[in-house]
């Protein structure tokens, strides 16, 4: 603009047309040009067209001529010398040129600044056109603004617009400009998500942004408001300002805009016409001009508001009673046209009053089923709750049942309430059986197993008189929940044998559903695990259970992780991790917050068993996020997640944080009797012993053992409470009791066959034994754990073996074991054990390697490049070609990468990089760019290559 004004000031006439939609800042842009006029020596003449004066001839031209007359003496035209705007030849309109002639004769540069040209009267347009045709070699600049899509379609306007030499199209503000605007409005810098939300709502329109900020200040909101809250705001001033101007330009526009706002994503021209009562062609014409004006935007045959804020403002401007009527009419029209149930239901949600539509409940139920398939459980709940407000007939029970099933995924307490009401309205036995199963699982999730069992027992009594198969299904579910809760007695154990079957074939008929098979297979697997018998059969049953399909609204949510629990206890840790991820993916797709919390809690436990302390911490904290615990008490999986978190904090040495966590959850004193809290007692005992209170720690460990033993939980792979208690007994001087405990644990571990359990028991046995017997036990522990995924337990056994060898003055062998232990502890993130290993290495005369010699951070830039290309499936030859080195050099680089990352080969490398938080560039598809932050290819890379050669 400065160059254009400078050129005009030098005698080369210029014309600029500034275009933009309403509120995009055309007037502000024009003012900036006016402010720059004096800098370039231009005298300023201004005019602004008004819609109310569009029919008044020469109204715009007169404003310019009045400005010309006010110019200083010697510049302005003398007296009435300027031609009157209504002069003899209005067709050519020379009056404006005559009015400016004296100024032009003296060589005075002029800037004519004209705002809102779309509302100018026709005679003034002719005058302006006459002037612009003679701009060549005159010191005059004409800068005018025009609103897109609001110009009349006459020849005079079209000819004038085409005469402008330069055209500027204004678009929305950038993120940086919007942030500055927000900072000016609120007096402090906004957060980036807030800026992004505001730009999305307004399209970056300066006027809309300022209106939005005014609305926010009115509600006491600041520049850190959430995106959801920004989307809810509806500054009515926007509609009050914009709608009248569109109605003036295009009569009927307001009716169309209101219809588009109500229909939202269903606004096709035909539906807009039916909702407004306008003719089809008339509605289509109005939609078209509003799209050209920039207020609407087309997406295929559907139109929407270009700026979502304008839609909310238009809706807010409609009186509530009329808005209700429009939504109800829209719902009926959509339903009659065969629109998807979800589109109809979205309209029904907006109807606040009772509509009395007989088909409403059916549509809402169908829509809930559609959205739940996409994982939007919150939307599904909203549809069903709206249906309950409307429904009084027999379908109310169906709505309550569907709502309760969906609420299992997010709010088990609400699920219980709605399902109990549904049970009272359900007459037939099969329907009552399904509802009772849902109630039982909701109560199990809430940590109320006694109530869950009572509900199932009542159902068994009902079903036995009518339908034997239903009774058997309820009995199997009752057995599984009792097994899960460690609430098993002798009589119940016999009942479980009948429900789960013997070690051979399960009693499943051809009509059994996937859910029934999942229940019985899970029961058989869990029962074997509890007794510590037939490990291979338990794993087989768990695998079979995982193969059974689950519908999205599956009521067996409380037992979905049972097969994973068995796999974890059977040391099938890699498979358990893979299945945990699959369950997390399924929970995310279903939108089930309950299942997500359960899956994260389960994966936290599995990751702790593998020694992945950082991963365990992440999963446990996710499972314990606010809203994942029941308002009425401890959620059934709280114990599992808290236990995993306490265990991980023990390994990182954060004992005060672990103690504070227990206090925050009210678990520092009495611990609930629920089965999931046995692990909490176990790790709390370890924590108390580590904090210097062995008596309290031993009490927790023995109470954990008492609970497990009373329930027939004999498998040490579940919780190795005997070996942990043995260590505390020995520390307190009771070596005899310690030996008895560890001998029993080792015997039971061997009976089960789990490598981790055997290795842990052998390690403690080695620590308690003396001389060669202890060393032999530790060596066997290392050997057993080598073939397992339990890296942290292997690191402990290697450390203890290294200490024994160091004390026996076999320093070389001791250092070898301790170095392996150091590598493993650093991989696991076990800070406490890593410090012990480092100290022992120093005592053994070694120079412990730096912590950065292990893990991804230890890789040089070249090693990282090689690793990333290997992960991208390039062969060694292809890598060598890309890096201009020999194939042998690549092999040496990879061997160092494998050592630093402690992976066996390429397959392990891929898994390792895939697990890195935030990604490493692998998935971006550019392995050559995967360098360490701040590292480049230079002297260090060259040195690496030379060393490899």
Task: Summarize the structure in short.
The chain is mainly α.
Round the Cα radius of gyration to an integer and report it. Answer: 39 Å
Task: Using the alpha-carbon principal axes, give the shape.
Answer: globular
Total DSSP E strands: 7
Helical percent range?
A: 55-70%
Task: Note poorly predicted spans.
Answer: 76-94, 490-494, 496-506, 628-633, 915-949
Strand order across the largest sheet: 2-3-4-1-5
Termini Cα gap: 62 Å
Number of helices: 47
Mean pLDDT, nearest integer? 83
Structural class: mainly alpha
Largest sheet descriptor: 5 strands, parallel
Q: Name the beta content range.
A: under 5%
Q: Layout of helices and strands, plus pairs?
A:
Layout: H1 2-9, E1 14-20, H2 26-37, E2 43-48, H3 59-69, H4 95-105, E3 110-115, H5 122-132, E4 140-147, H6 155-163, E5 166-169, H7 175-186, H8 192-202, H9 206-218, H10 227-232, H11 236-249, H12 253-263, H13 269-276, H14 280-292, E6 296-299, E7 302-305, H15 308-317, H16 320-336, H17 341-349, H18 360-373, H19 377-390, H20 395-407, H21 412-425, H22 429-445, H23 449-464, H24 468-484, H25 490-500, H26 514-531, H27 535-547, H28 562-569, H29 573-590, H30 593-610, H31 613-623, H32 638-652, H33 655-664, H34 678-690, H35 694-710, H36 721-731, H37 735-752, H38 755-768, H39 771-786, H40 791-807, H41 811-828, H42 831-843, H43 861-871, H44 876-883, H45 887-901, H46 906-914, H47 939-948
Would you give an account of this structure?
The protein has 949 residues and is mainly alpha-helical. Helix content is 64%, strand content 4%. It is built from 47 helices and 7 strands. The strands form 2 sheets. It has a 5-stranded parallel beta sheet with strand order 2-3-4-1-5, sandwiched between helices. The chain has a two-stranded antiparallel ribbon with strand order 6-7. Strand 3, helix 5 (122-132) and strand 4 (140-147) form a beta-alpha-beta unit. The longest helix is centred in the middle third of the chain and has 18 residues, at 514-531. It is globular. The model is unreliable at 76-94, 490-494, 496-506, 628-633 and 915-949 (pLDDT under 50).
């Amino acid at each position: 603009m400065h160059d254009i004004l400078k050129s005009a000031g030098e005698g080369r006439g210029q014309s600029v047309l500034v275009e933009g939609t309403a509120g995009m800042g055309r007037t502000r842009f024009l003012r900036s040009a006016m402010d720059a006029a004096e800098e370039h020596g231009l005298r300023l003449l201004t005019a602004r067209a008004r819609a109310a004066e569009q029919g008044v001839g020469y109204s715009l031209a007169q404003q310019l001529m009045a400005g010309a007359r006010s110019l200083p003496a010697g510049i302005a035209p003398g007296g009435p010398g300027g031609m009157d705007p209504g002069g003899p030849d209005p067709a050519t309109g020379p009056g404006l040129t005559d009015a400016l002639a004296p100024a032009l004769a003296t060589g005075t540069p002029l800037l004519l600044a004209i705002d809102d040209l779309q509302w100018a009267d026709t005679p003034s347009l002719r005058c302006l056109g006459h002037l612009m045709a003679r701009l060549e070699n005159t010191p005059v600049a004409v800068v005018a603004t025009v609103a897109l899509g609001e110009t009349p379609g006459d020849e005079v306007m079209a000819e004038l617009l085409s005469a402008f030499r330069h055209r500027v199209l204004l678009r929305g503000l950038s993120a940086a400009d919007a942030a500055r605007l927000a900072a000016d409005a609120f007096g402090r810098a906004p957060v980036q998500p807030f800026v992004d939300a505001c730009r999305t709502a307004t399209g970056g329109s300066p006027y809309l942004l300022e209106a939005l900020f005014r609305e926010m200040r009115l509600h006491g909101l600041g520049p850190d408001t959430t995106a959801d809250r920004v989307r809810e705001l509806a500054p009515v001033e926007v509609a009050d300002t914009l709608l009248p101007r569109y109605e003036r330009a295009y009569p009927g526009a307001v009716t169309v805009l209101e219809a588009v706002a109500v229909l939202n994503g269903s606004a096709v021209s035909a539906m807009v016409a039916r909702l407004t009562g306008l003719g089809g062609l008339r509605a289509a014409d109005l939609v078209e001009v509003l799209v050209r004006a920039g207020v609407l935007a087309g997406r295929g045959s559907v139109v929407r508001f270009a700026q979502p804020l304008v839609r909310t403002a238009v809706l807010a401007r409609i009186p509530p009673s009329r808005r209700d009527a429009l939504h109800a009419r829209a719902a009926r029209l959509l339903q009659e046209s065969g629109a998807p149930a979800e589109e109809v239901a979205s309209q029904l949600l907006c109807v606040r009053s009772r509509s009395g539509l007989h088909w409403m409940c059916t549509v809402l139920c169908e829509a809930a089923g559609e959205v739940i398939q996409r994982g939007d459980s919150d939307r599904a709940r909203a549809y069903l709750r709206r249906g309950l407000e409307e429904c009084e007939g027999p379908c109310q029970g169906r709505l309550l049942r569907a709502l309760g099933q969906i609420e299992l995924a997010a709010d088990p307490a609400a699920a219980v309430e709605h399902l109990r009401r549904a049970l009272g309205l359900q007459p037939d036995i099969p329907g009552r059986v399904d509802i009772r199963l849902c109630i039982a699982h909701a109560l199990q999730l809430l940590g109320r197993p006694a109530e869950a069992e009572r509900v199932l027992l009542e159902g068994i009594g009902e079903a036995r008189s009518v339908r034997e198969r239903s009774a058997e299904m309820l009995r199997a579910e009752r057995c599984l929940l009792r097994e899960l809760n460690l609430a098993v007695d002798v009589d119940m154990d016999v009942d479980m044998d009948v429900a789960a079957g013997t070690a051979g074939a399960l009693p499943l008929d051809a009509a059994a559903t996937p859910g029934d098979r999942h229940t019985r297979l899970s029961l058989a697997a869990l029962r074997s695990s509890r007794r510590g018998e037939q490990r291979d059969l338990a794993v087989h049953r768990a695998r079979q259970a995982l193969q059974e399909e689950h519908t999205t609204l599956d009521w067996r949510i409380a037992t979905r992780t049972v097969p994973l629990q068995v796999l974890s206890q059977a040391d099938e840790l890699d498979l358990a991790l893979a299945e945990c991820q699959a369950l997390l993916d399924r929970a995310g797709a279903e939108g089930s917050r309950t299942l997500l919390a359960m899956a994260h809690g389960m994966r936290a436990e599995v990751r702790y068993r593998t020694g992945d302390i950082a991963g365990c911490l992440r999963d446990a904290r996710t499972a314990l996020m606010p809203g994942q615990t029941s308002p009425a008490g401890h959620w059934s999986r709280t114990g599992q997640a808290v236990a995993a978190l306490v265990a991980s904090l023990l390994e990182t040495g954060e004992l005060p944080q672990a103690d504070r966590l227990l206090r925050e959850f009210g678990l520092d004193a009495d611990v609930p009797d629920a089965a999931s809290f046995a692990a909490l007692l176990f790790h709390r005992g370890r924590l108390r012993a580590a904090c210097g209170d062995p008596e309290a720690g031993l009490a927790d460990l023995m109470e954990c053992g008492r609970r497990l033993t009373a329930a027939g939980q004999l498998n040490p792979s579940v919780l190795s409470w005997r070996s942990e208690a043995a260590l505390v007994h020995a520390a307190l001087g009771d070596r005899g009791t310690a030996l008895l405990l560890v001998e029993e644990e080792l015997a039971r571990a061997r009976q089960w066959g789990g490598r981790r359990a055997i290795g842990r028991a052998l390690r403690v046995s080695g620590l308690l034994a003396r001389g060669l017997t202890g060393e032999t036990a530790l060596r066997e522990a290392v050997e057993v754990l080598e073939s397992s995924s339990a890296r942290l337990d292997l690191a402990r056994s290697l450390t203890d073996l290294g200490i024994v060898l160091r004390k026996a003055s076999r320093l070389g062998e001791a250092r070898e074991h301790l170095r392996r232990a150091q590598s493993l502890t650093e991989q696991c993130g076990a800070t406490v054990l890593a410090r012990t290993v480092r100290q022992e290495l120093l005592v053994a005369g070694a120079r412990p390697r730096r912590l950065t010699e292990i893990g991804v951070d230890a890789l040089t830039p070249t090693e990282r490049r090689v690793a990333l290309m290997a992960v991208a499936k390039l062969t060694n030859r292809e890598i060598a070609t890309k890096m201009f080195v020999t194939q042998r050099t690549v092999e040496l680089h990879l061997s160092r990468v494998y050592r630093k990352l402690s992976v066996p080969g390429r397959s392990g490398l891929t898994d390792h990089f895939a697990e890195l938080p935030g990604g490493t560039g692998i998935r971006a598809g550019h392995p050559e760019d995967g360098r360490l932050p701040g590292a480049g290819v230079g002297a260090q890379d060259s040195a690496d290559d030379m060393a490899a050669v």
